[in-house]
Amino acid sequence: MRAFRKVQSMAGLPAAFALAGLLAAGAGAQENDDFHLGEIEYEISCLSCHGIDGRGDGPDAAHLDKKPADLTSIARANGGVFPTERLALVIDGRDLVAAHGAREMPVWGERYRVPVPGVEGEFDFEADARAKIDALVRYIEGLQE
Ligand code: HEC
């Protein structure tokens, strides 16, 4: 909606400015896509444990030994700074599991790379996993209080 208004306001300006407006609208759409990807992925993969608002009170939380992390206070716990890099590593999990042994939180870096029969070789699972994890990190950033 914001991007749409931007394009409308460009209507009377020379072509070069209109083009800049269209590019800005494109960038806005890209951001929305990222947010949606993160939101959808969160609902599919994370909500069951971390809960609809990210507070760690999802329906499966009761079956775990460890309470799922409250994802709304990550920045507060880190001196007000949202730790983007660390979070991507925590969600991916492959490095951390190698260092600390088992954890209750699934290792998404492995899950997202499970090859789909017949697709392997044509599809870049590494890039897809990274895109999902980046989108999730941005989604969680939006949950901060
Ligand atoms: C099976 C339940 C479960 C699911 C599903 C799950 N988590 Fe977790 N998560 C946990 C638990 C339990 C912890 C606490 C740390 C541990 O396991 O050692 C945790 C911790 C975290 C942390 C660490 C927070 C911090 O400050 O270090 C992040 C980030 C996180 N989860 C994100 C996610 C995301 C994103 C998804 C979905 C892709 C997800 N979790 C799915 C159970 C789950």
Keywords:
145 residues; mainly alpha; 58% helix; globular; binds heme C
Ligands, deduplicated? heme C
In which range does the helix fraction lie? 55-70%
Q: Give me the count of strands.
A: 0
In total, the number of domains comes to 1
- Unreliable spans are 1-13
Cα distance spanning the termini:
25 Å
Q: Main sheet? A: none
The sequence of SSEs as H and E is HHHHHHHH
- Mean pLDDT rating: 80
User: What would the principal axes of the Cα set say about the shape?
Assistant: globular
The helix count comes to 8
Computed Rg: 19 Å
Structural class: mainly alpha
Strand content: under 5%
Please provide a written account of the structure.
The protein has 145 residues and is mostly helical. It has one domain (2-141). Helices cover 58% and strands 0% of the residues. The chain is built from 8 helices and no strands. 13% of the residues are buried. Bound molecules: heme C. Residues 45-46, 48-50, 60, 64, 66, 68-69, 71, 74, 87, 90-91, 103-106, 108, 136 line the site of heme C.
